[in-house]
Fold these 2 entries.
Entry 1:
Amino acid sequence: MKTALITGISGQDGAYLAELLLEKGYRVYGTYRRTSSVNFWRIEELGIQNHPNLELVEFDLTDGGSAIRLLQTTGATEVYNLAAQSFVGVSFDQPATTAAITGVGALHMLEAIRIVNPKIRFYQASTSEMFGKVQAVPQKEDTPFYPRSPYGVAKLYAHWITVNYRESYGIFGSSGILFNHESPLRGREFVTRKITDSVAKIKLGKLDVLELGNLDAKRDWGFAKEYVEGMWRMLQADEPDTFVLATNRTETVRDFVTLAFAAVDIDIDWKGSEENETGTCRKTGKVLVRINPKFYRPAEVELLIGDPAKAFEKLGWKPETTLENLCKMMVEADLRRNERDASF
Ligand code: NDP
Ligand code: GDP
């Protein structure tokens, strides 16, 4: 039986990856952080929390010594490093914490591999945020990086240290440069899920207005469940490498809002510009979306669109779910949750 370790199992990708690896017959160790009230809602929603081949272990990525013990005790031969302070907005307020977890955390895992068993295969969760300020369209593996947030800078360190351990010590370290990927399990601080949850609440009369920041930002949004399959394929390849996973389609935040309201049969009419822009219901004239500058970022990533050709060619990976279907799936899940639970 193959044994895998996933850091960050309480997150969106950790939950989907655990589900995938369990389906493939792996023994899975998933790490979570000690908090006063641990929350496993994602693996509960997937129904895998009591799976006999899943073991949850307490771990903090900032503790290098415990990374070594973790590899010694689990005997994992594949390590997926998904844990991170993953929210760009927070990284501007907590840049040092972000650097310690998201950047140096990857180094702790790689050092532990070097010490415990250099044959362990390592996946690093890199990000399109490393491309940041547009240098080329679409972005691919050899596009120059220009991160625009402490999160992007920390991830760039983690990416290069993975490449460096591959080249210096022959460690099988692969880096997946994943463009934004969403799902009903996405955290509510991220824009897509904030939108789908708010649209569900507006439809059910639990919220009046959705407040957002920059509506012009363009993102390449895919479905998370398909992207974790790409992570797994990277570690089954003959050689470690760097791969972009993306859909090659980009849309604005405004377009995603329009799609989400369309999923509950509300037609949005956009009026005004910049800070005064509003989204109104075409039928009733009621303002349902407005700008709140508190959601603007000190520096913005304006345009992300990825070229996943290498992943298709070398891994046979390609995305299937359209943005329309992804958005609808998320709105429907949020309608169900909001209907079921009054305090949700
Ligand atoms: P989430 O924010 O949903 O999950 C992050 C996970 O990291 C959580 O389980 C969190 O635990 C854990 N974590 C945070 N800090 C620590 C720490 N100090 N020690 C141990 N664990 C910690 O992210 P996603 O699942 O969406 O993303 C997975 C990875 O992929 C992340 O590294 C992210 O940066 C990266 N990525 C994501 C993209 C996306 O669009 N989703 C795009 C590209 C890259 P807790 O629940 O306790 O907070
Ligand atoms: P990111 O690409 O990792 O930063 O993912 P997010 O989902 O956090 O943000 C995607 C884009 O949406 C960014 O360009 C944000 O500036 C923009 N955005 C606009 N309004 C909001 C908002 O209210 N919350 C968040 N999280 N992002 C917003």
Entry 2:
Amino acid sequence: PLKIVVIGGGSSYTPELVEGIILHRTTLPVKELILVDVLMGEEKVNIITDLAKRMFINAEMNVDVSYTLNRREALNGADFVLTQLRVGGLDARRKDERIPLQYGVIGQETTGPGGFAKAIRTIPVMLEICRDMENICPDAWLINFTNPSGIVTEAIHKYSKVKCIGLCNVPINMHYDAAERLGVNPKDLYCEFTGLNHLSFMTHAYYNGADRLPEILGIDVEEGIVENINKIEEMDIIANQLGFMLSPYLQYFYFEKSMIQEELENLHSAKGTRSDEVLEVEKGLFELYKNTELNIKPEALSKRGGARYSEAAISLINSIYNDSNELHVVNVINHGTIPELPQDSAVEVNCIINKQGATPIHIGSLPTTIRGLVEQVKMYETLTIKAAVTGDRTTALLALLNNPLIHDVMDAKNILNDLLDAHKDLLDNF
Ligand code: NAD
Ligand code: G6P
Ligand code: MN
């Protein structure tokens, strides 16, 4: 029987996970689920724990659910640890989104300077969790959902011994989008991905022996695949010209001006930035969660960007536990899979999943049309990790200078100063 520990258990996404555990009950014998949080999140994790209990009872499953603020105690005997925490909460996210915009630069929580700030706040905390895991449950798997997921995963591989796989819900949603456009069962479609977390490209989509991606790209759809990014129509056109299906996060790079304009319009309206929206969605969600009549995952959770998170996370755990050699698109260490990128860096590619973990399938060279962008973002990511662990301000500046969404040294300097100042209580290394 399995013990699963969720760090950041007060997240409104946790009912997703519980649903995933319920759906996998025949193959995944979960006995214990512990939700770990910090004082700031105690009220939320308490509500979620009660909801999780009701969901398991409703499913007639005997899972021991509890919460604790004592991480080390929780880790004792853990088989799988899921991390989904937000250092500094939505307040910190709000600053990450707003500060860059003051300088006319993209304000987003995972790409651009906002993603940099989230990374330097988060990496030291994640490495502390890893220290605990090394001591308390060295054989446990860490499934990391905490953003920026690829960067965090690379930092863990570089600075700890913990077995870690990084996860994002974008690839699985791109896969379902491709299958839906083609009108086929997602299970019958094999999609190949290359690139990085939030910088990914679907390069092939094989159905019954033929690559149907060109056909898929010819079909326009209005709806985007994640709730937090409004789809720009021209994305389908450039995707067609490139010959790849594009992660919605590529809008920030390919349509930077339009995205900044949209962000500024929202900022100066009642809408604010995405964190303001999420704050409202969360309020509504926790009102629902508190209702003792509720014993299933509510539909309203689909207003968050992390759709299909549970499917991705729990089926990944299922593949490891059952040694099933299934394919998942996850964040792993490159080891030459993409020859242009450093051996020890994280990439988001197709992997075979079994008890040994995630083994990337050989992808080969990055197509020339996207190589420059991917390589540049990887250099930014590598420098960001170095800055996070050393607290060196020059390295931090050079990281930002390598981010393709920053075009001027003075912008980089000003944004860095403002971010370090705004988050100083959460940045012990600096
Ligand atoms: P949230 O603000 O609800 O935070 C989740 C919980 O983490 C909160 O209850 C908070 O109290 C807790 N927390 C903060 N610091 C902690 C610490 N040091 N130890 C333990 N718990 C701590 O956040 P959310 O919106 O649910 O998102 C959680 C994380 O998942 C974020 O990092 C977010 O970016 C990420 N996320 C990733 C994806 C993906 O595709 N990988 C998708 C959605 C969200
Ligand atoms: C997306 C991404 C996540 C991102 C999240 C935002 O789909 O894959 O990495 O952080 O959803 O969702 P939110 O509802 O918090 O804006
Ligand atoms: Mn993601």
